[in-house]
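Changelog note: in this version the structure field was regenerated for every chain. One regenerated record is shown below for reference.
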Amino acid sequence: MDTVVIFENVEKWYRFRRRRIHALQDFTLSLRRGELFGLIGHNGAGKSTTLRLLLGLAFPSKGQVVLQGRSPRDPRARQSLTFLPEHPYFFEGFTPLELVEDTARIYGLPRAYTRERTRILAEHLQLQAYLRIPLRKLSKGNVQKVALLLTFLPDPEILILDEPLSGLDPPSRHQVMALLQRMHREGKTILFTSHILTDVERVCTRIGLLIRGRLRRTLTPETLQSSGKTLEALFLEELQA
């Protein structure tokens, strides 16, 4: 498998009252095509900063970030990639179908493809009954599922998801994780963050533990199983170290 994401000795800091505040320190990670990678960490650990650097929305203070062999600032690097932010925002007067139409227009998706793809995704996410209802009348969980539908709509090769399970109840989380597993089996590359460690442990091919801006460990299901500990137990050990 070829490497699609590289973080090489990356540091990111901000200036605050003449002090240097580190968001990431000595962060090194490679992500191979077809991986389902979960990045976990406490609040403020640097997870969202990592994704912003990868998308070219922020720039490293030191080190190098490479996306599909190019700088993330190069639009060609972001082709066939979609991103779900932690707090997606939509005009609440729109219906999910209207958002689908606008998204399809941006991507230049054929009408027949958009209609069939929307039908399939809405069925997986159990959104069929809500597609013509304004977002302001939907629950937080259903709005999150609409955001996921729009992220999955163009059938991207790479998905970058910041807390995709936010606001979802257990059945909805199961639906989303099943979708991610299906996409992984299709060869998609998926990088996502989450605080729900049981879901991460269940589906990921690799897991990164980000503690106070440092990538402390990367785990596979095999190394996690051989440790005899749960992901939560290992994470708490690293957090307290």
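Spot check on this record: The chain has a mean pLDDT of 94. The longest helix spans residues 170-185.
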